[in-house]
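Hi D.,

Good news: the full-assembly prediction came through. Inputs first.
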Amino acid sequence: MKVRREQKISRVAKPKGARGTPVKAEPKPKLGADVIPAERYTSADYAALEWSRMWTKVWLLGCREDDIPNPGDHIVTEIGKESILIVRQQNGGVKAFHNVCQHRGNKVVHAVHRPQEAAKSFRCRYHNWEYRLDGRFADIPDLETFPQGAPSCGGLISLPCDRWGSFVWFSLDRRASSLRDYLGIIPQHLDPYHFERMVLTEWKSVEWNTNWKASVDAFNESYHVQGTHPQLLYYLDDLDIQIDCYERHSRYLIAFGVLSPRVVSPSEIPPPIKVAMRDAGMDPASYEGSVYEARRAIQKHKRDNAVAQGKDYSDLNDDQLTDDYNYLIFPNITLNIHADDLMLFRHRPHPTDPGKMYFDYFMFQLPGNEFDKEDYKPPIHKSYKHGETSLGLVINQDAYNLPHVQDGMKSEGFQGLWIGDQEIRIRHFHKTMDDYCESAKPKGRAG
Amino acid sequence: MDLGLIGKNVLITGATQGIGRQIANLFAEEGANVAICSRSPDGVKKAVKELALLADGKIVGAPCNIKNKEEYEAWVAAMAEELGGVDIFIPNVSAGGGADSEKNWWKNFEIDVLGAVRGVEAVLPLMAKRGGGAVTMISTTAAVETFMAPQAYNAMKAALITYAKQLSQAHGDKGVRVNSVSPGPIYFDGGAWDMIKTSNEKFYERTEKTHALGRLGEPEEVARCVVFLSSPAASWVTGVNLVVDGGYTKRVQF
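Then the structure:
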């Protein structure tokens, strides 16, 4: 039955303490109602513009600090046609380099997305050109046979590299302003979750047959829940959500452990809410309250039992103990953040085909008492083609749609994206794309 | 065919929604006097008001937590008093399904099983006073065939079928008939199958096809059978378990 119950989600009015995540609702941005052209998702020209004006100007997520804990530890990540080598330095700092030997262009480290243990130096396998951890040349065999001497760059080409939130970030723009400037509101909003306490439990990349922006869009609005994820209507309120757009980043706050106004209130606690209760350490069969009190009951149970469960929620407000705080760190990091886990998606463009992309799936968990540090082994990254691996029901449901969306966007019968207010983060995302792509010089203000 | 329900006094537990509510509706429409309960005072008030619109007879109700023995017995006594006796009793309230913990077993035992036992013991002397009566238990096809998961709901509902049969033998001499009705999957807005239909439409459609009649049942289709078996029109029927499932279960019932 089609219903639309009247329902208001109660939200905390104030941040948790001085360091808590801000909860204030931002005014709705005035972004007009224009159609967003479909060519942005399909044309090679637009992809080239994106590359030269956006990807090469922003800060990008490189790896986890935990991937490279000790001096010499390193990892290679890729963005578009570029391969980036990130290296832990002797002094504990991090450096990022173009992963390319200055001699004949061979990649210096060939393993991608595989944390590599301490190297003393990097040696190109082609002619043994050798680089120090800080990128400078260590050895060029038979240097005397090069009448022009060594390349004047002095070693690997270094890129801006910095750390925040347990992650290492880099920029392809050698003149980039600081990471802090670029991240803007993000550290203040997300530091209370203490990502550094979480451990990686899943890590996969899937080549999806869609443009990377279609993938970003799929996680930037809740309007598709009733179409794509109907089972979530018994778990979250997809209508009363708080959407906040900042300069380049954005978020929405979705209450979990509640019913959607789109379903008739059931006489039993719905199975997904029971799962949330069990995850919090409650026995759903012993719960005597109504479905409308479940969200607050779960929050209270988690708050009351945090110490016993070995978890520290002291910087999180009550809503954060159940709800989904979903952030987009422009351009390509989606974070579904919960007190006990972080689902992080990185949407990477394909180097040549605007109809393809890489969906990087990272799952992090906050360890509790039962976590055995000795026993923990980080997952080994694996790559798949579309449909070769399951990413769980919800993401599988999203992934199912996307190639069809990509094909449809190429049709003569489609003029562009017709975006409603529930999808305003998509409009805001495209406005930020415009800020980069329409002027050669991106804005420098904090986002 | 006249069901002979005009002026009969009916007690139904948990009759504010779903099958129980439809049972109450039909009794009311047939001219019976009906007493209902539910845990929520607002729920009872609303249902009594709505039922009164259908009724020629008297409609009463009061909130009651079936788990609480004294409260439950007091509810039976008060309703019997208000209606002036009891002819028909339908222990309908259920703790529902779930395999979360041992607590599910206690809940189904206290609400489904003891909810029937305590009610029956309270109404039997009242029925004897009036020269007879009828009790109809609400069981489920989950009691007679494998369904979903091993869980307390299925097993405790099975207990009701055995209990009903034995009651029918023990109290026939007082003119009391006792039967069970076992519905299969029933759809109503806000019911378990509404959740399944919304959450997993394919499974819902497969379940529809599993029924010989090709769809899920409606509460009224179960209620009509309950009302018939409980009425004087079924005067020669006792000790049966009537499966009302549109051909969902496949066993042969001899």
